[in-house]
Amino acid sequence: MNNKLFALDIGTRSVVGIILEESDGHYKAIDIIVREHKERSMLDGQIHDVLSVSEIITEIKEALEALHGTLKKVCVAAAGRALKTEQSKAVADISGKPMFSKQDILHLELSAVQQAQAAVAGEKNNEHHYYCVGYSVLYYQLDGEEIGSLIDQRGNEASVEIIATFLPKVVVESLLSALDRAGLEMDALTLEPIAAINVLIPASMRRLNVALVDIGAGTSDIALTDSGTVIAYGMVPVAGDEITEAVSEEFLLDFPLAEKAKRDLLENESISITDILGFETTISKDEAVERIAPAIDRLAETIGEEILRLNGNKSPKAVMLVGGGSLTPDLPRRLATKLNLPENRVAIRGLDAINSVSFADHITKGPELVTPIGIAIAAKQSPVQYHTVYVNDQPVRLFEVNKLTVGDCLLAAGIKMNKLYGRPGLAMIVSLNGKNVTIPGKHGQQPVLLKNGLPCTFDDQVDGGDKLTVQKGEDGVRPELTLGDLIGELPSKTVIIDGKRYEVSAKLTCNSLPASMSQPVADRGEIVFVMPDTIEGILKELKLAELLNVTRPFFIKVDGIEHKIIEFSGKIYVNGLAANLQNKIDHLDDIRFEKGTEPTLRRLVEMLGIPGTDCMPIFFNGQQIQLEQEIMEFTRGGIKLGMDERIHSGDHISTKQKDVQPFIFQDLFNFAQFEIPMDSRGFTLLKNGEKAAFDDRLAPGDELNITFESPVGLK
Prior knowledge:
Blueprint: E1 3-10, E2 14-23, E3 26-36, E4 42-43, E5 46-47, H1 50-68, E6 73-78, E7 84-93, H2 102-121, E8 130-142, E9 145-147, E10 157-168, H3 169-181, E11 185-191, H4 192-200, E12 210-215, E13 220-226, E14 229-236, H5 240-251, H6 255-267, E15 270-274, E16 280-284, H7 285-291, H8 293-310, E17 318-322, H9 331-338, E18 346-348, E19 357-359, H10 370-381, E20 385-391, E21 394-400, H11 406-412, E22 428-432, E23 435-439, E24 448-451, E25 454-455, E26 467-471, H12 483-487, E27 492-497, E28 500-505, E29 507-510, E30 513-514, E31 526-530, H13 535-541, H14 546-551, E32 555-558, E33 561-564, E34 571-574, E35 577-579, E36 590-594, H15 601-608, E37 613-620, E38 623-630, E39 632-636, E40 639-641, E41 652-657, E42 683-687, E43 690-691, E44 703-708
Parallel strand pairs: 3-19, 6-11, 12-17, 17-18, 20-26, 22-31, 27-36, 32-41, 37-44
Antiparallel strand pairs: 1-2, 2-3, 4-5, 7-10, 8-9, 8-10, 12-13, 13-14, 15-16, 20-21, 22-23, 24-25, 24-26, 27-28, 29-30, 29-31, 32-33, 34-35, 34-36, 37-38, 39-40, 39-41, 42-43, 42-44
InterPro entries: ATPase_NBD, FtsA/MreB, SHS2_FtsA
Protein name: Cell division protein FtsA
Keywords: Cell cycle, Cell division
C-alpha cells in the first residue's frame, strides 16, 4: 500500500510543495510545485505576514489537490536560521554532601540549560518563549578537573558545561496559524537542518566533522556534525539573492532574468541576455563570473567565517552545499579556498545523493529539492510533536524533538531549576584555638516530584495529558553539634610524678569559661583546648600545687636587699636530668622532686659572706679552742636571732653592728668545760706560763691554763 506524504518548504523567497509516495521504506516524488511570495512576508525564517503566506500555501494545496485528491495534513519544518545555540556552565557546591547521584547530575544539567535559555533571551527577559530542542553535555568537572562521570563522586565543587539549541515559540505558532488558515493540519514538524542532514548525512557518518550549508534565496543555514551528533546550527543573512542582484546590476537585467542568467551560467559556457534597454549580448561564462566575482567572494567569505565560528575556529573535514543558492557559479571552489580545504572537499549535493528516493519524469532534479524532500521524510521518521502537560495544575505546551522528560516540562513551565533544591542551612563560624572554622549548615533536601500522583525523577518520560507536581525541597538548618563532635577527642598524655602515674588531658574552654565535650557549639564561640606541656602547667592541671612550694626558689631579704640562694632551693629532675618548672614534658616522662634544705642563720651568713662573728683561736690545757663573739645582731620581725636559728624562704632579716670588746681571759669560760675539785683551796690563772687575771687581754694562739691548789688538778 502506498502512503502519500505532503510536505511544504516555506522559504524566504518561495514556498515549495511536494508529494511523495512511500512503499516499504522507499519514497517516490510524484509531484512538486513552487510559488514565490508576492511580497516580503518572510524574514530570517520567521513568518511576518501570516495572511500572505497562507495564501501561497492555499494556492499550492489547491493545485496539488486538483491532481492528487484532497490534502488535509502536511509535514513542515521550522527554519534552521531561527535556531539559537548557546553554551552554558552550571556549578554546584557539594562539600560535605553525600555521593552525587544521577538525579543531582540531571538537576545540574537542567540548571545549565536554563542559564543558556536566559542567555538566548538576553535582556528581554522572555526566556520562556524559547523551546529547548536538545542539548549535549560537553564535559563534567570535579574540583576544576575534567572527569568522565560525576555519579557517586565526592568533592567540593561539581560543574557541567552544555551546548543547547533553542527555537523561538513564535516561529512555530506563526507556522501553525498559516497552516490553519490554509485549511491544513500539521501532520509532523521537523527542523530544516535536521531534514537536510537526515537525508544526506546518515547517523553512521555523523562521527565525521562535516558542514552542511543550505543556501536559499535570502539566508544560508549551516549545520555541523561531529562525534556522532549535530554539534551546532547557524545562519548568515547572505544567499542566492545576493548573487542574482549582482547579475542584475552588472548586466542591467530585471530580477527574474538575472535569476535565469545565473542558473544558465552553471550549464553553459556562454549566455545570451537582453538588458532593460533592449540590447542583446552574448557573454562568456568566464567573463560573467569575473564581473560578479566580488558578490561570490562575499558569499563564500560570509559562509566560511560562520562555519569556522561554529566549528571552534577550525575547518571541517568536508562541506556539502544544498539549496538553490548552491548553484552560484564557482562558489564551491572559493569556499574551499576560504576554509583551506582541497577543492574536492566542498561539493554541491543534489537529489542523486538520496538513494531512497526516486522521481517522476517531469521533476527536474536539483539541490533546491533536497530540503523539501528531507522535510517529508524526516518529519515522518523523526517527527517533532506538541504535547500539553500540567505542571502544578497549570497547562504547559511542549515542543518535543526526542523523548519528553519531566525536566523538559519544568523548563517549559518556567520553574527555576536552581531554586528547586532546598537552600543549605546557615553556617556557623567559630574560633578554634585562634583559627576561624566554618561549619556548613545541613544541605537542603531534593525537590518532591510527582507524575500523576506518583513519585518520579527528572528523566522520567512524560506523555501528553500527564499531571506533574513539583514542590521545592526543604531548606537545610543550622548545624547542631557538640564540642566533642567538633574536636573529636581531646589530646592527653601520661606522666610519672614521684613514682605515681597521672593522666593529663587538654584543658577545654569556651568563651573563656570551662567547658565539657557535651556542650553544644554556638555561633561565634571562641573555643580553646590547650594541652599543658610544662611541669608547672601539668602540676596546676593535676591540682598538685603543693609541689610548686617544693620547687620554689629560696629568696630572702637582708636589710631590704633580696637574695636568691640556689643551694637552699628545691630540685626537679626529668628522666634523671636537672630541670625547671618551664621544661616541656612528653608522654611517659618521669618527674621527680627533691626538697631544698632549711638553713640556719649561720649557714646563711656564710653563704652571703656577712661578717656576723669575730673568732680567735687559743689553746687551753693543750687543746685548741675557738673563741667567738657576735659583732652583728640579726633580727626577724623584731626578734633577735641566734646563729643556729632556722630561717625560711621569704624571711626579712635586719642586721645591726654591735660594740665589740677585745677577748679577755674570762671569755674562756663560755667555751671551755672543766670541773673544780671539791677540796680545792684556790686556783691560779696562767697565760703562756705566767700568772694572769680574768680581765687580761688575749691574743690569737695564747696558751691558757688554770691550776688548783689541791691534790686533784683541773680536768
